[in-house]
Amino acid sequence: MTYVITHGCCGDGSCIPVCPVQCIRPRPGDPDFTSTEQLYIDPATCIDCGACMDECPVNAIHSEWDLPDELGEYLAVNAAHFAQNPVEESSPVKQPRRVLPTENPELRVAIIGTGPAGCYAASALTDIKGVGVTMFERLPTPFGLVRAGVAPDHAGTKQISKRFGAVLARPSVTCYFNVEVGRDITVDEILEHHHAVIWAVGAGDDRGLGVPGEDLAGSVSAREFVGWYNGHPDFADRDFDFSGKRAVIIGNGNVALDAARILARPVDALASTDIADHALARLATSQISDVVVTARRGPEHAAFTSGELSGLVHTEDIAVRTVGEELTGLDGTDRASRILLEAAGQAGSDNRSITFRFGLTPEAFKGLGHVESVIFRRPDGTRETMEATLVIRAIGHRGREVAGLPFDEARGTVVNDGGRIIDPGTGDAVVGNYCTGWFKRGATGMIGTNKADSEETVETLLSDFTAGALQDPTGDADVLDKLVRERQPDVVGKDAWARIDQAERARGRQARRPRQKFISVTEMLEAGRAAG
Question: Please, what is the angle between helix 222-229 and helix 254-264, to 10°?
Fold first, then answer.
């Protein structure tokens, strides 16, 4: 018998160190570790101990004998990986033992942002004796895209917030939520009280298409749509046009598939999730029955993972279709291409449908004040007009420039070397400033990709600290606390966040849902102030 890694793997590798026979691949340091769709267990080597399942933060590992029917294909998926990549090295991965220099046994680091990258960095730092971490978050709630980006019907993936919550609860971590760096406190003021700052602020802007009409009403970014249905305060007041029969999504990454699935699923299937109440109510009125997911390149270059595609085709009440003549480059030898080929020419049904289209380059959005159609160019130069009253642009995110930090406009990231922010002209460090996550490398990878990314940044920071390259702070924690509370009286700390969390869960229990989110900062602050 063997254990099996399935759909929803976060890729952070927590399962790898606990495996006594090292049968999980790829591992940190392997060339494909940061680019793999998921991790895999070698069934020929696994000794059925279950240590990996106990350690998995997202419940993505199952025993072969207890594998749900809808995940049955993953036994073959795991085995197929090792048919092409046999295990040749089984010695344990060395875990770094990080210590501060004896002559300087105290390090204080501020982290701006509490999403996965920030939480992984806090975890790596506070594993070290003598390190204290202060976390700043613009919203009253932590966890970034785990809370506001993961689709509501991916409850297993959201379980990683428990792991991150345990990090924030550590005594060596201080939390200031509802505090915006740059508005309530400056980074220079933060550095007066810390040796270093790690920017873990994600990618807060959208990539543009650069075509006429993309700013018409009815043309929206996936970031807006995802934030809306997840109850992010910045997007809760958005409204979308669901009056037409067709929605077009431009881009075919996993975010595009999430958006398509939310549009196509019956609301009854979403009613037991933590989707925002306003989104559930509006989706119940939707007339959309045809969702078209388009991509400029061919299917062999599709951006979605095979796991997300497989999950989509196994979703009840959704018909998934493709156009056969657009799949000529596929030979059916890999999992994703087999799924796409099987979907070619699927017969119509009464269900809502999601159709994947390839080789369509958007040239213009048309409409009088509101999008009515999109004009695409095919590879042969001919054009196709696709009518739609809702167009979602899911072509990726980019970082938002921060005043005083060097920014790479082309990549949409801060300029850095291994997480150390540098001046691109001189190569010199911007002393005390580091980065991790999407702000560092761009909007790529799984949630768990941020673990290795943040550990690289922590290693760089520790190297600089040991070399004496960081300035000692002049202020202490009490002075900082007083400053923050004077500037932002509505600061949310650990206890207040716990009250918000408990209140959302209590509301959810009444509605038989995991939680019922507050969608405004005012509601969150009221819940945070409520008596425990």
Answer: 50
Looking at the structure, tell me whether residues 169 and 302 fall in a common domain.
Answer: no
Tell me the CATH number at 167.
3.40.50.720
| Percentage above 90 pLDDT, the chain | 93
pLDDT digits (tens, 9 = 90+) for 1-19: 999 999 999 999 999 999 9
> DSSP class of residue 473?
P
User: What residues make up the domain containing 429?
Assistant: 107-204+398-492
Q: Are strands 131-137 and 24-25 parallel, antiparallel or unpaired?
A: unpaired
Residue ending a domain, among 351, 372, 395, is 395
Does residue 250 lie within any of the structural domains?
yes
| 34 within a domain of the structure (yes/no) | yes
**Exposed, middle or buried by CB within 10 Å (0-12, 13-18, 19+), for 348?**
exposed
CB-based contact 377:363 (threshold 8 Å): yes
pLDDT in tens, 104-115: 999 999 999 999
Could you tell me the pLDDT band of residue 190, with boundaries at 50, 70 and 90?
Answer: very high
Task: State the amino acid at position 288 in one-letter form.
Answer: I
- Across the strands, what pairs with 137? 177
- Contact between 340 and 355 under an 8 Å Cβ cutoff? The reply is no
pLDDT at 437 over 80: yes
